[in-house]
Structures are given as structure tokens and as C-alpha cells.
Amino acid sequence: MKLVSVIIPYYKKENFIVETVNSIIQQTYANFEIIIIDDELSETSSRVLASLKKIDKRISILLNNKNIGAGLSRNRGIDYSKGEFIAFCDSDDLWKKDKLKTQIDFMMQNNLNLTFTGYDILNEQNKLLGTRNAKTSKKFKDLIKSCDIGLSTVIIKKNLLIEKKLYFCDLITKEDYVLWLKLSKNGAVFHNLDIILSSWRKTNKSLSSAISQKLADGYRVYRNHLNYGKLVSILCLIRLSLNYLLKTIKNV
């Protein structure tokens, strides 16, 4: 049974982190480690995470020296990890109990190094708001138009990141989207498993930040990280935003 390293950056999610970690601990696939990176660095986060660590010996806590954001915190977790596979989970998201077993079995049986799945959308009270399916695999030509990969659904072989020297960037939002684009641009395929295995929690704060911040980071995705020209970057941002609105409307 392959070791899976589960990477969780933590910042001001006291109301959700226990439920998140419990959804991982209760997995039917037992060979995993949980690496939580404290990016809040407060008395509250120290108390909450110290209490969590006592729940299960597979939990490790990393302390950042300063607040560096979710993306760079995940990079620290990746470097610290011991698993052959890396799985990502945000500190307010949830996993179905068979997520790891179903997804790892699928990857092993089909010799895959990168997969994603469908996910539910929940509000803060765990009410189902909608669903995002994973009907097709994704290549660069697909992802450049629309970010259809839920971060907490992704499992990747660690050596794919290490060999290509690809990590999360330091954007406030869309840091995962940049990594997906760079992986796919380097030939990686996001293979789909069209089963709902995770739940993404839509909170007031995870409306991921101000619209202006999202738009600014969206522009930087194309301009700074893909090195597109200004006009092309603007056009790509408009297309990305329109596709996001269409997905949102479907889940209203």
C-alpha cells in the first residue's frame, strides 16, 4: 500500500479544521500522513493545531516563520512529505471516506500519475449548493480556457512535481491554477475520475477574496506566469471569467 502525503495549509479556519481532518482520518485507505502547515501563527492556531496533533500519530504540524500564503505553505509540505503520492486538501474542505482508496486504486490500475475527481459544493452549514463533475480529462488546451480542477480532489505522484521542478506560486488566489497550467503545458494530463469524492466549502471568506484581487491575479496568471502579451492576457482573463460565471449559474 503506497504512502500518501496529505498537504493542508491552515489559516483562520478554526470552525472547520477538525471536521476536515476527521474526514481524512476516517478514510478506508489507512497508509497516509497528514501535514498541516500553520500559516496563521497565532495563539489560536497553536492551540487548535496542537489539539489536532494529539488525535492521530499520522499528523505533523509545520510552523511557518511568517505568513506566506496557501501556495508557498503547500510547497513546504511537499518538501517535507515522505509519500509517493501527494494529495491536497484545504482546511475547510471535506473528503468522502473512500476518496483515497478509490482514487489510488484507479491510479495504480491505470498507471496514472495525476488525477482529479468531481466534488460537491457546500455552504458553512454543510448544505449542498451544487456539484461539479469531472466528465473529461484535461490538457493544457482545456485548462487555459477554464479552471475545472478542484484542488482538494487532486492526487499527484510526487516525482512528477520534483522532476519538472514545479511548485505553487505566491499569488493570493489562483495559485493552484498556475500549477495546473504549468504541469499540463509540460505534457501532464489531468485524468478524470467522474465520481464525487470531495466537498468544497463555499464560505464568505472563500469567495476567495475581493473580485478586484481575483481579476488582478487572473491577469497575472497569463501575463506573468505564462508570459503572454498584455492583450492576449486580457482576452484570456475575460474568457476565464465568463466560463466561471457560466459554471456558477449552473449551480444556482
Explain what you see.
The protein has 252 residues and is an alpha/beta fold. It has a single domain (4-204), classed as Spore Coat Polysaccharide Biosynthesis Protein SpsA, Chain A. It has helices at residues 17-25, 43-53, 70-80, 99-110, 140-143, 158-164, 175-185, 211-225, 230-250, and strands at residues 4-10, 32-38, 59-63, 85-88, 94-95, 114-122, 128-132, 155-157, 191-201. Strands 1, 2, 3, 4, 5, 6, 7, 8 and 9 form a nine-stranded mixed sheet that branches. Helix 8 crosses helix 9 (230-250). The N and C termini lie far apart (40 Å). The mean pLDDT is 94.
Structural features:
40% helix, alpha/beta, Spore Coat Polysaccharide Biosynthesis Protein SpsA, Chain A, 252 residues, globular
Shape: globular
Helix content: 40-55%
| Unreliable runs | none
Q: Count helical runs.
A: 9
| Radius of gyration over all CA atoms, rounded | 17 Å
How far apart the termini lie comes to 40 Å
Query: What value does the average pLDDT take?
Result: 94
CATH class: Alpha Beta
Structural category: alpha/beta
CATH architecture classification? Alpha-Beta Complex
Would you identify the CATH H-level superfamily? Spore Coat Polysaccharide Biosynthesis Protein SpsA, Chain A
